[in-house]
Amino acid sequence: MAATGKFVSDSPATQLALATETHIRLFDVSQGEFRPLTPRLPVQATITAMCSVPGARSADRLLVLSDSGNPTLLEYTPSTGQLAAVAAEPLCRSGVRRASPQQFAAADPSGACVFLTAAQTAACMYQLGSDSSNNNTPTLGSPIDAPRPECVTLALAACSDAAYPTFATLELELAGSDTGNNGHGPRGSTLAFYTLEPNLHTVVRSHTRHFHGEASFLVALPGGVPGNPRVALGFPGHVVVTDMQGELTIELPLPGRSDVVVAGAATPRITLLQTADGQLLKLVVGAAPDARGITPASLRPFDMLQVCTALHILPSGHLAAVPEWGDVQLLQFESLGEDQDESESESNSDSSAANAAEPQTHTLTHLARTGTLPTLNPLTAARFDATTLSVLCPAVQPHSTTPATRTLRSTVPFHTVVASPLPPSPQRLWALRASTSAPHHSLLVLAFPRATKTLAMADDAITELAPGPFPGGETTLHCALLQGDTLVQVTPGRVTQVQAAAPYAAVSEWLPPAGVRCVCAASTPTQLAVALSNGTVAYFIADAGAAAHGALLEAAARADLGGSAPITALAMGGDAKAGVPALFLAVATGDKLLSTVALHPDSASFLERTSYQRLGDVAVDVVCVPGEVHCGLRNGVYARSTLARGPESSPLDPPVFVDVTNRYLGGRPVSLSLLPGVALENVHDSDSDSEEEDEDEEDEAPVETHPCVVAHSEETWTWYASGGREYLRQVSLPEGIGALLRAAEVHTAPLPANGCVALSRTGQLVIGRFGRFPLASAWFAQQDSTDASEDEDEDETVAFPQYRTKCMLPMGEHTVMVENHIGKTHASRFSILSPVQNEPLPQPQHTPIPFGKCTAATLVEFSSGGSHLVVATGGGTLHTYALGARADGTFAPRLLHSTETNEAKGQAGQAGSSISALASFRGMLLASVHRSLVLFALGKKQLLRRFAAPLAPSAAHVTCLAVRGDALVAAGDLRESVTVYRHSQAEGDPTFFPVACDSVSRHVTALAFLDDWTLAGGDRAGNVWCLRVPPAAHAPLGEADSPAQLWRRREDKRLGGNLMEAPFRLELANHFYLNDIVTSLAVVRDVQRSGRELLVYTGLQGSIGVLVPVLSSGEARLLRGLEGAVERLEESADAVTAPEDVTVLASRKVPAVEGRYTLVGRDHSSYRGYYAPVRNVIDGDLCETFFDLPPLEQRLVCAAMPKATTPEAVRSALNLIRIDNM
Amino acid sequence: MCVHALQDMHSAYSSLRIQGATNHHFSNYHTLPMSEKQRQQRLLQIQKQRYLGVGDENTTDVEWKTNVRRDTYNSLQGHSATLEYLTLANDAVLTKQQMRIALLRKMADLPESKKRPHEPEE
């Protein structure tokens, strides 16, 4: 759904609101691009209709109808960047209902009222007003019922040019009603107008007209006679333009092949209609009759686009096209199509060249694409990568007919700008500025085991400085720019301070005591701490006196951390970006302790240990970020220690350790680097930015930056936090770099943001930048296999894909993609995608399957002959392809043979005649053929039937098969849920026998085994669930078992065995309503070395989600309590009595409408339990909204939880789930 | 398909309970005083007007099934996921809008049988 309007007050620009059934997002489209104004806002309800309500003296608002039953007005709040509910009125009961006015909504152009209709009969009108006593907030008045006969509403439009608010509806009389027929023969359509009589406070239905044709589309046309609004109706083969009074009726034939109008948009300047084949038609209707009394009208081809659900013509001269499938587009009008003859000839040229019947591409003639918003709809298939939790799925691009794929990665991309080899064994590096006020870094200091090199960065060149500021014959432990523009270098034998500018005059020098050497150091611009090998820390401060040039002065005492354990790492505790002196020093020692040492000279415990914490191993590196100390341990663990200040502690004393969380990153010791300020959002992901883009970026407001810790183990990781949420994500590095050893932030002219210089494990100096960081609001970064920027004509081309992906089958690193032809042509094809670019391999690119549409496909590793692709086509024929892998990584697929499944042929005409489920089982092909499970082996001329076992008697049609080991098979049925079968070879007769079946009908669409006796699946109604085989049926899979043994073990023996399909009933373990049909489901293990298992699913409309197992009961109690408390937040807010809290709530100036925290006021538990009550599933999306709540609401939530807790504890628990599992 | 209509019917019956016309009352219907019977009849008529799925002793099999089918078609076109699922599965219909109109037409075209003759209500 989409709506346009001026939702931002005091802004002339037009915004576009895009809504799926579950989320709303606002974009600024006035510049021809999709610039997001809000994040994706979850509604926690099913949105059924949406329209823009013009504001008379304020910004426009959004009217949202949903299954909550509350028509809700949403207003954009620029200060928070969110949509807020400003008015909501309970109208009907919750749910998607036939007779509740929630199906269509339209607002009067003057903003005086809105008209709502149901799918059947019911309709009402709301007058809009404002509450002067409450800051002029808008109000919805009482609903005024519209008088209607029994009818079905097909379309609704708001008319302009009427004296009173008038709406037109396209209606279909119900069969059997007084006015309708009895359902025999073609039915007509009724056009009716509903007018609000404001004085009488009634709605009048008038000017109804019956048409004999089957109209399916309605749009209101501006520019008619005042008081007599015009509308256009779409009929099969023609369009009728008429008006309310019936004075005008013009019938215009539809040009082109299609005879159905599916979308349209009308403005005073241009009216566009779109037919079902994508052709845009320009409708022109004269304002008044000519001299002959005939109103001129024409309907001519304008252009072509993908078929849209909504078209919006913007005042800025753009057309927002929301296609039914694929990416949303923003197109600019190049012309309005006055030169009709020329445009017709141009638009037809491409079509005739390619295929007269089905054009594949079209060159835009009057439109030019300026913006594209990628979507994944329809997401019919996907492949998951367990290592980094990335998803490969098909993409419907607006400019490409090739089977493009889209890779969604949840890692942090690193784009390399320069990579050059270095001398052996580089150890550390630092990027330094020439002065504290310099905007860019100009020096690179590299430390080798016995040498130090200094490089100068100027423009795009890097040169070695000789002589450099530091002596080169010794390694460097630490290097930094201090206040007063001096450089300090710490080596094992001395601390040297020099001027930052050539000739690098010496400022000061410090030597450790005899027999003692420096081991590590840390600094801020005014402080330096040097750890010595005798277990003490020497502390220096920069002399602020003008004559001293910032020379370092050593403190009278040294921090003695005692013991014989050496100091292994130091870090200054403070905000490195803020530039304030550090309040404490974090010291890691060899006895696995992490300590804090007070650094404020006025503190009572100056240079004394104030707190310590035990770590799992010796820390290799320590860095400090606000509120936390991060340690990289020798055993490959990344430890994050939380600091907090006690209520009675002095502000001069450092905070103390209160918590620590660990995360295993790999087998190597973890070294850490701190990047003080990286931009997490608004980062361009392209590899090369043009100069024009750079200039644009300089003009933009400075972006918000956050500290980022880069952790180096076997892979490279980044830790970052935004909005209270913490993330730990892997970095995806280009090939040839491996992992990073050290990294440092660098700002140069070519790298204005997120620049990074690093040492790679392969011994290279790498300069590059980090791309977009995954955040909860945008978890995945999308990358298309065909780069749009390479095609210069992509803005001019519209592609009409001929194929749609049926399935994506993983074959090692390659992926086999099977596609079906769209439409009535019975053809399909498959291609093998390369592992890196995910593009089809060139030779051959596509292998046609000329036998019909693929109904199921699988890869089988036949025990007698390698990997084969088996494709089932209509009629139950199995086609076996040998993939022919070559040594050079290419494939030569060839058809081996086709196998007719005889039973299917014999039962042709029945529902189960086609094969919809295939799987690989015991090195053979398992197929559901009609009403039996059949195992096929590979033969020379056809597949050889090994044995067949009958399905359960109630089975209708098996839609998916899941296999567990060599023994268990689960068959998901079209409507009879799941039945678990077990393979048996008892008495030498192999067969499958049912173990457990379900007692509830489920329309299964996806199925996967979680463990031996637990299944997860999704159904056609949008639910996901887990079913468990009862414990009594559990038996070791390796042991031979027989049906008789199983029947004897069943506990419920009330029914005789002959009355039951299986001895056991599946138990429902979990149930949750996703509001999207699950198309693929997979258990991925060890995502990002988490050691956990996740259940990843994709939904048909493009949703990708993860179900995380909650391991401990304490965690489950906390999350369930949090979910309930967030659900009841409105009740908690209404019950606030504390005066200060009441004042805070009142100061927000948000009216206390129902649903102010959930936008539309849908009861969450009812929504998530739409078809069946939620069972043992906690809604993580709802819990995540805790981070977005203001502090007062967070406290209210914590107080309402069964076990009162603090917001910090809740945030920590949620962050732990995100970091530990994904 | 009937699963889509279940929620509507379930809600209709739950509303009956909310309004006080409980199953217990219906089970003892014949022993109730006349005034209570009339009150319950009125309640039932109100429920029938508000919720289309509520039937009575005169509801015919066809009427009941017509209601269920209409609820089903409405649910299929009212949830975007099921509408998309049907469109993708149907080769003859290429656009979701066409499928939605087709479902709405099916909803309107269901023949509704005449009610069984019964005593006129007061």
Automatic annotation (TrEMBL), chain A:
Residues 5-341 form the RSE1/DDB1/CPSF1 first beta-propeller domain. The keyword Nucleus applies. GO terms for biological process: mRNA processing. The keyword Transmembrane does not apply. It is found in: Nucleus. Residues 337-347, 688-702 have a biased composition (Acidic residues). Residues 337-361, 683-705 are annotated as: Disordered. Residues 348-358 have a biased composition (Low complexity). Residues 876-1188 form the RSE1/DDB1/CPSF1 C-terminal domain. This is U2 snRNP complex subunit. It comes from the Eukaryota. It comes from Maudiozyma humilis. Its main location: nucleus. Pfam families: Beta-prop_RSE1_1st, Beta-prop_RSE1_2nd, CPSF_A. Keywords: mRNA processing, Nucleus. GO terms for molecular function: nucleic acid binding. Residues 416-678 form the RSE1/DDB1/CPSF1 second beta-propeller domain. SUPFAM superfamilies: WD40 repeat-like (SSF50978). The lineage of its organism: Eukaryota, Fungi, Dikarya, Ascomycota, Saccharomycotina. GO terms for cellular component: nucleus.
From TrEMBL, chain B:
PANTHER family: SPLICING FACTOR 3B SUBUNIT 5. Signal peptide: none annotated. Transmembrane segments: none annotated. GO terms for biological process: mRNA splicing, via spliceosome. This is U2 snRNP complex subunit. GO terms for cellular component: precatalytic spliceosome; U2 snRNP.
